[in-house]
Design brief:
This protein is mainly α. Helix content is 64%, strand content 0%. GO terms for molecular function: fatty acid elongase activity.
């Protein structure tokens, strides 16, 4: 148990001393426990609860929900790409770009775009949940 406590203490120290303070008020960024809880709940649903709930039920018809979900994903990813291309690409090079902790417009846009990308990755978890609800278990892999 001691190594686990050391890892938690080290992580808390790193977050306290090296994290970007501008992101403290961003959704789900005040603590890593929020994201950890989401991932644990997701894994529990996908691996255990979801298949048990759907065991004796017909697959759900999610066609209209999936169309809306996929359209939302395409629009959001396209917006992130366009804004990122306009506001971030001119300021970076392919080798190494140090992170800018200043309050400049460019730095704030970069920070917000990275946060939106993070939120989209959490929303991507819905893909697997939809597979469970549609009983497409062959499409669910560990990866």
């Amino acid at each position: 148990m001691d190594p686990i406590l050391w890892i938690i203490d080290f992580h808390d120290y790193a977050v306290k001393h090296y994290s970007d303070r501008r992101t403290d008020n961003y959704f789900l960024m005040s603590s890593y426990w929020n994201v950890l809880a989401i991932v644990i709940a997701y894994l529990y649903f996908v691996k255990s609860l979801g298949p048990k709930l759907m065991e004796n039920r017909k697959p759900l018809n999610l066609k209209s929900i999936l169309i809306a979900y996929n359209l939302m994903q395409v629009v959001c990813c396209t917006c992130l790409f366009i804004v990122g291309t306009i506001y971030i690409m001119p300021y970076i090079n392919i080798f190494c770009t140090p992170f800018d902790f200043s309050q400049s417009f460019h730095s704030n846009v970069t920070s917000k775009l990275m946060h939106y990308f993070f939120i989209l990755k959490l929303v991507d978890l819905l893909d697997t949940i939809f597979f469970v609800l549609k009983k497409n278990n062959r499409q669910i892999t560990t990866l």
